[in-house]
Design goal:
three-stranded antiparallel sheet, alpha/beta, 13 strands
Length: 334
């Protein structure tokens, strides 16, 4: 059985090299710290970094995968590298360059890596075109998108062309949170532990209640971090749909609980009881293995984490470790 990690981040060194030389074309600046650490600044206002060196270290990545028993990583950018702050053609050029470079990087070890690209959601028409290019021309399995588009929620009507193309292609859309805005979570590491899952929940709820999944029934969306808080508070959302329909149900044909069961969720929940709950709620055929490599909260042994869940059957473990991803990959309409 082949094991797949759907949640692993990357930033090829070739991208940094390109931006050092030609950053003006992408309205992007590369900053190098006194210790050699690298940060990027998009549009003069969005700083991302320092970037962990492991993001671009292929030998270290492969060694970590081998140690963890991970056969294949679906690699995607750190979410802030979506660069939605880039206006005009610079954002479109950046996404195209990132995808071309990532495709070349993955092609060096096609038995170990599958690419998830980026699309310029701040330019929805171009984003839909880039999605087609990434999947059909570059052979990518899909894309990673962030939880908001420079502050705009994912239910914005302007994004409908993107959902339509993703629905047509049946490619994977990995939904990853940005930091939660407007709340002081600067203490106790709460920005990560609470803010990121909350941000995912809000983003997914906008998609669910706006009817995006009803209009696009073949969308393949995977939420990281076990879905944020969505699967664990879906009962409250289902209740709201029932008792306040003029607000919660006006765009829906399908109850939110049933929509939530159509999404995929990675296994990065850190304790086996939560994996058991996820499987009970949505089924083992909707849970996939994820590690969040190489960040501090990442699961170093994601295969063992699945194998250690006592409630799972062998068939369920097989689905989570790889069978579900193989089904997703086989269903892409290239």
């Amino acid at each position: 059985m082949t094991t797949y990690d759907v949640h692993a981040h990357i930033c090829p060194t070739e991208l940094i090299d390109l931006l050092r030389v030609d950053g003006h074309r992408f309205d992007t600046e590369v900053l190098t710290g006194p210790d050699g650490d690298v940060s990027l600044v998009f549009a003069g206002r969005q700083k991302v970094g320092p970037l962990p060196p492991e993001l671009g270290d292929a030998p270290a990545r492969l060694a970590a995968m081998d140690s963890a028993g991970v056969d294949v990583q679906l690699v995607s950018h750190r979410t802030e590298l979506s660069a939605y702050a880039l206006a005009g053609d610079s954002g479109v050029r950046y996404a195209r360059a990132f995808n071309e470079i990532l495709a070349a990087e993955v092609s060096r070890a096609p038995d170990r890596f599958v690419a998830l690209g980026t699309i310029p959601l701040q330019h929805p028409t171009a984003a839909a075109e880039e999605l087609r290019h990434a999947v059909r021309d570059l052979g990518m399995a899909g894309v990673e998108i962030a939880s908001t588009v420079d502050g705009t929620a994912l239910d914005a009507v302007e994004l409908e062309p993107v959902w339509e193309v993703a629905n047509e292609l049946r490619c994977l859309v990995l939904l990853h949170p940005l930091p939660l805005r407007g709340v002081d979570l600067s203490r106790y590491f709460l920005a990560n532990m609470v803010g990121r899952p909350a941000e995912s929940t809000i983003a997914a709820a906008h998609l669910v209640f706006s009817g995006v999944f009803d209009r696009n029934p073949d969308l393949v969306v995977c939420m990281v971090h076990g879905g944020g808080f969505l699967p664990y508070q879906i009962g409250r959302m289902q209740k709201g749909y029932q008792v306040v329909p003029h607000l919660a149900a006006r765009h829906l044909r399908t109850p939110p609980l049933e929509i939530v069961k159509r999404l995929y969720y990675d296994s990065l929940v850190h304790i086996p009881q939560v994996i058991s709950y996820l499987v009970d709620l949505v089924g083992a055929d909707r849970v996939v293995m994820g590690s969040d490599y190489p960040y501090e909260m990442h699961e170093r042994q994601p295969v063992k984490a699945i194998e250690a869940v006592p409630s799972l059957t062998d068939e369920q473990r097989s689905l989570i470790l790889g069978g579900n991803v193989e089904r997703i990959l086989a269903g892409i309409k290239r």
